[in-house]
Amino acid sequence: MTTTLWLFIALQMTMGAFDTFYHHEGTERLAWRPGQSVELRLHGIRNLAYMLAFACLGWTIPKGGWAIALILLLAGELFITLWDFVEEDRTRHLPATERITHTLLTLNYGVILAMLIPRLLDWAGEPSAIMPVHYGMMSWFCAIAAFGVFVSGLRDLAAARRCPRLVPADPAPLAAALGHSKTVLVTGGTGFVGSRLVEALASAGHDVTVLARDRARAAPLLQAGPVRIITSLDAISPDTRIDAIVNLAGEPISNSPWTRAKRQRIVRSRMGMTQNVLRLIQRLHHRPEVLVSGSAIGIYGLRGDEKLDESDEGKPCFSRHVCLNWERAARRAEGLGVRTVYLRTGLVLDASGGMLARMLAPFEYGLGGRFGDGRHWMSWIHRDDLVRLIVHCLARPEINGPVNGTAPVPVTNRTFTAALGRALHRPAMLPVPAWPLRRLLSGFAEELLLNGQRVLPAVATRSGFSFRYPNLDVALAAITGGDKMILTDVPVRPLALKEG
């Protein structure tokens, strides 16, 4: 084994690890995407083949029949890779970085085979034997790589078996409360919550217009039903009839640290879009009946163990500044005769996005745990329940003003992480200390990771809304493909919000 060959093998290992962690686990989240069972099975088998190859090359010299077996193993890996390429093109759109990585991996693998196969053929001519060998650091590098692909391979095979249980429920019933056909404009319709809302409305037969910056990204929504995609509100003529507007557009708040530029984008995106929606309402000949405008429970600030409902004030922090200004901007719609609802959303749970999606991989590998002391509150809601609550607000003319988009049973971070571990059948015993989070992420960590609000959905429950996922274990079981449950709408009695 020459130094040059080892360099190419090490490069293959490094690029493969990047592809796995950045694409498969990170941006694509393949283990939690419905319909990827074949690709995951191919990845699992290929990773187990890599394990055998790395262990063999790093610690042995295979001769005779063992060398021939290794050649066949490498040929099988090549066949699986080609099959994987076909499966990927059939089931999903690969991002540019993944296509480039796959091309480099293929070229590099070709170089490895060109250098390795002649040596293996020479060994194949000798009597069958497995001779131990030690290549120093490269042997240990191979051992680490073999262990990594072994764990990843077993995980992918398990995820492939789980895939059929991850198929989302029919979205149409989520919009059942809206009744007869309505025309609804949704901004932020390609986002985590907005896309599911659009699917629900369109599947239920409502006419939906989606404002999207990227028409190609919004194209999959056309499969749900009568959906019109626009890239500017100016495309809507004044004589267009719009019955309701749901304004969810805005820079994501939890996908990166709050640098000064990020804070500006968070504020400006929400204010700018809301102002554009108001200008649209002003010029429409038939003004909408209702505007549901996004907000968040961050408007209450950091309040410790206090039970909070829509009547409570807040304490100053960046999240409150964003939400307060967002709601004030939307309030102008009331002066235009439009019933206005401010949807104060909590932590939205689903495997396809949001904070939970970023937690699934480390927890599934047994690396999850609480943040800090884990005593801060997490007010959560299943994504489908949030969609149903939005539709509920559209359909009930008596609802206006702030509405908390949270489930009736908030939990502490310690309870949340323990429940997620149970749902994945993994331990959740590796806490993330508070001090590095505060040092690295500053206000982002302080407001989103280490503190929270204990928020209760008083308006929703008083108006008769029933939660399909009222408690965390039921929600996480549904999201993670856990035990089959018969889920029905569970009425929740109005809560005693104030103690004493």
Automatic annotation (TrEMBL):
DUF1731 domain boundaries: 432-479
Domain NAD-dependent epimerase/dehydratase as annotated: residue spans: 184-398
Family annotation (InterPro entries): DUF1731, Epimerase_deHydtase, NAD(P)-bd_dom_sf, SDR39U1
Protein name: SulA-family protein
Record flagged with keyword Membrane: yes
Keywords: Membrane, Transmembrane, Transmembrane helix
Transmembrane annotation, as ranges: 66-83, 103-121, 133-154
Keyword Transmembrane: yes
Family membership: Belongs to the NAD(P)-dependent epimerase/dehydratase family. SDR39U1 subfamily.
Organism of provenance: Sphingobium indicum (strain DSM 16413 / CCM 7287 / MTCC 6362 / UT26 / NBRC 101211 / UT26S) (Sphingobium japonicum)
